[in-house]
Amino acid sequence: MRIRVIIFIAAVLLAGCVHLDIQKNNDALKHIQPGDTQASVYETMGPPDLRNDISDGRFVAYYQTTAGRTPDTSVTTALCTPIAFENGTVVAVGNDLTEQWTREEAERLRRADIAKRQRQEAEMAEVARREAEAERQQKIDALEKEVKPVPASKAALNLKLYRQLLDLDPENPRYQKKVAFYEARLVRQKKARQERAARKAKENNRRKWEQARDTRNTHLRQYTGNGIAEMALHDMGSGSLYVWVKNVSDQIITTHPDYFTLIDSQDNQARCEISSSLDSVLEPGAISHGKIEYSREIQPKALVFQNQESGRISKQFQ
């Protein structure tokens, strides 16, 4: 019986102490406001019954201001009034900022993680850039070493190497000038080769033409015509012809330098000098003859004689 009495008395005393602490907290809270320091709050109210640390500089302190159902009920945030501290200063009294600050902290951590990854990516990109730049410079040095002994006459090789250098360093004015120089030089060299080839081909054709002169003269020296006049030629070489025109009719015909036209291999009328001896009046059976001279570069295709009396006759060289 005595023990029960003692327990009852202790419970009454304990409950009384709890209610005194709660009343003390409620009275003290009336004097706490935003802007107070953590030290002044602790001096007034003592350490909190509960504390929730959100982040460095932010936490919520809970002071019990409501009694539980029984004296031994555990203290929970539901029985407390929150005081929010940021950097050692009260920012809210009675408003629990735990949820808001937790979201903000999560967002801060997320942004910090993104920023960290971005810094890492930037660092990796910078490392890659430096490695690429080192590799680029190595290629430039190797190409510079390769192009240095190449003579200027080797335009194609110089152009190839300087184009590679310009690809590696597009803004380099020296490489730009070198590429432009060797491009122009290569064009000139190509043109010179083409001109030499053309001259060689022309010379070969002229040589073949001269070599075939005897064979050509075999048919050129034979008189051919139209029953009024007949013509025969002799290719003397080096741009000279000798021409005979025979009157094979029973009427008088005339010859004149203006009646002769020399056609070249391109079917163009070639300029030529025609002997005045071809200005003649021919009796039946008579022959007019003389020299025709032209540029040795010309390859004749045909000689045409034409006038009103005798009509048109031609002699083909091929």
CATH topology of one domain: Immunoglobulin-like
How many helices? The count is 6
- The CATH class of one domain, by name, is Mainly Beta
Q: Record the strand order, biggest sheet.
A: 5-6-7-12-10
CA radius of gyration: 59 Å
Q: What is the global morphology?
A: rod-shaped
Q: How many angstroms separate the termini?
A: 155 Å
Report on the architecture of this protein.
- This protein has 318 residues and is of the alpha+beta class.
- It contains 6 helices and 14 strands.
- Among the domains are: 2-96, Beta-lactamase Inhibitory Protein, Chain:B, domain 1 (2-Layer Sandwich), CATH 3.30.1450; 213-316, Immunoglobulin-like (Sandwich), CATH 2.60.40.1240.
- The chain has helices at residues 2-29, 38-45, 98-147, 155-168, 173-211, 213-220; strands at residues 50-55, 58-64, 80-86, 89-93, 224-225, 229-235, 240-247, 253-255, 260-264, 272-274, 280-282, 287-294, 300-307, 311-316.
- Strands 5-6-7-12-10 form a 5-stranded antiparallel beta sheet. A 4-stranded antiparallel beta sheet has the order 1-2-3-4. The protein has a 3-stranded antiparallel beta sheet with strand order 9-13-14, with no helix packed on it.
- A hairpin with a 3-residue loop joins strand 5 and strand 6.
- The radius of gyration is 59 Å and the shape is rod-shaped.
- It starts with a helix and ends with a strand.
Question: What key attributes describe this structure?
Answer:
alpha+beta, 4-stranded antiparallel β-sheet, 318 residues, rod-shaped, 6 helices, Beta-lactamase Inhibitory Protein, Chain:B, domain 1, Immunoglobulin-like
